Amino acid sequence: MDPSSLSSFLNQQGYPAYRYRQILKNYLSARPASFLEMTDLPKPLRHQLDSNFKLSSLSLSQLQPSQGAVKAKLQLSDGQMIESVLMDYDQWYSVCLSTQVGCPLGCRFCATGQMGFIRKLTAEEIIDQVHFWNNYLYQQSPESSSKVDRLVFMGMGEPFLNWSNLILALDFIRSPQGWFVGQRKISISTAGIIPQIENFTNLDTQINLAVSLHSLNQSVRSEIMPISRQYPLDDLLSVCHQYTQKTRRQLFFEYALIRGVNDRPSDLSLLIKLLKSNHLFFLNLIPLNLTSHGMLPSLPETVNLFTQSLSKLGLNYSLRRSFGSDIQAACGQLIVNPKLPV
Ligand code: SF4
Questions:
Q1: pTM above threshold 0.90
Q2: Which of 95, 134, 261, 329 is deepest in the core (most CB within 10 A)?
Q3: Residue 336, pLDDT score
Q4: Would the pLDDT of 75 be above 60?
Q5: Distance from the alpha carbon of residue 220 to the mean position of ligand 1, in angstroms
């Protein structure tokens, strides 16, 4: 649902302001499946809304549940598809949101990157993913009050290349008029779009920033993440230091361990040096999830060597739990068949 067009429509039609609040409350509760089911509204208004608006810009195409995660393939109004993932952390639900159909950055280890770029999502399509999962949780258990608690912008696409819609969606999601999700419960991951990291730093927000690092060797990183040719590693690290200096907040580096590519002893030494250089840097080691890119995850003994060495030195890191790799729902595995132009 597009809250701002809805509000203008109601104003133009001369409805009192509380009608907008009522509709928004219904949308946020994610209980009614259509405007027609909003029984607290007068019938003529329900029909008017039903013929002029869509409660959600997304329709479910396929749902794949797995241990701890559910992946949804969602169709957009122009027929394009995206994927979005719900993760159950026992204490809370987290959703991995997509911001683009496909991705222009072509990271070699990522299925989304291999499908190319189709288009950016609108702010409405981004917020409707949250609505979709809240509705899913309600359908699963109407008596419980379970809802999405945390959001990670790590699905399909590079969020910082859809900056204006990302900001519009975030403004709604965290506002008292929206779901009011705490800023610290939202994370945005970027492949390293330096000008937007600077813009994000200047926003002075408490939203978490994650940078997909994956190598501290410029030539290796450029090979697996072509964006590194445009925004080289040294410049990226310097803007990361500026971020922590200015915000005094932790910055998270994502590092998928890839056998023979970024898991050599020299890579470990560079990671140690990086973490020692700034106590606000935090490393998330990620077991590489298999796609058709032909790269392999690091061997368990290599992963152990990395974690033991970092632990011994008391450095800030975690070995991330991977959700949904059996249903291609984990990091770097989201992909859909793009709709071809007619
Ligand atoms: S890892 Fe992220 S930035 Fe890279 S291609 Fe995949 S979706 Fe795009």
A1: yes
A2: 329
A3: 75
A4: yes
A5: 16
Is there a contact between 214 and 224 (Cβ–Cβ < 8 Å)? yes
Q: What is the mean pLDDT of the chain?
A: 93
CA 82 to centroid of ligand 1, rounded, Å: 14
> What CA–CA distance (Å, rounded) separates 132 from 307?
37
> What is the rounded CA–CA span in Å between residue 228 and residue 215?
10
Structure tokens at 13: 């039609």
Q: Mean pLDDT over residues 37-47, rounded?
A: 96
Q: What is the DSSP string of 240-281?
A: HHHHHHHH---EEEEEEEBTTTT-SHHHHHHHHHHHHH-TTE
The Cα 64–Cα 148 span in angstroms is 18
Q: Is 268 exposed, middle or buried (0-12, 13-18, 19+ CB in 10 A)?
A: middle
Atom of ligand 1 nearest to the CA of 103: 8
Verify whether residue 83 is a known catalytic residue: yes
The answer to whether the CB of 266 falls within 8 A of the CB of 228 is: no
Q: What is the pLDDT of residues 104-125, one digit of tens each?
A: 999 998 989 888 999 999 999 9
| Residue of 37, 83, 110, 158 marked catalytic | 83
Closest CA to 331 of 186, 105, 154: 154
Q: Extract the tokens encoding 114.
A: 């291999």
Residues forming beta bridges with residue 93, ordered by sequence position: 88, 148
What's the pLDDT tens digit per position in 260-280?
999 999 999 999 999 999 999
Helix (H, G, I), strand (E, B) or coil at 284: strand
Q: Contact, 73 vs 93, CB < 8 A?
A: no
Taking CA atoms, 132 is separated from 71, 72, 126, 234, 294, in Å, by 12, 9, 10, 40, 33
Torsion of CA 59, 62, 66, 71, to 10 degrees: -50
Around ligand 1, the residues with Cβ closer than 6 Å are: 103, 105-107, 110, 112-113, 156-158, 191, 212, 332
What is the distance between the alpha carbons of residues 110 and 153, in angstroms, rounded to a whole number?
Answer: 15
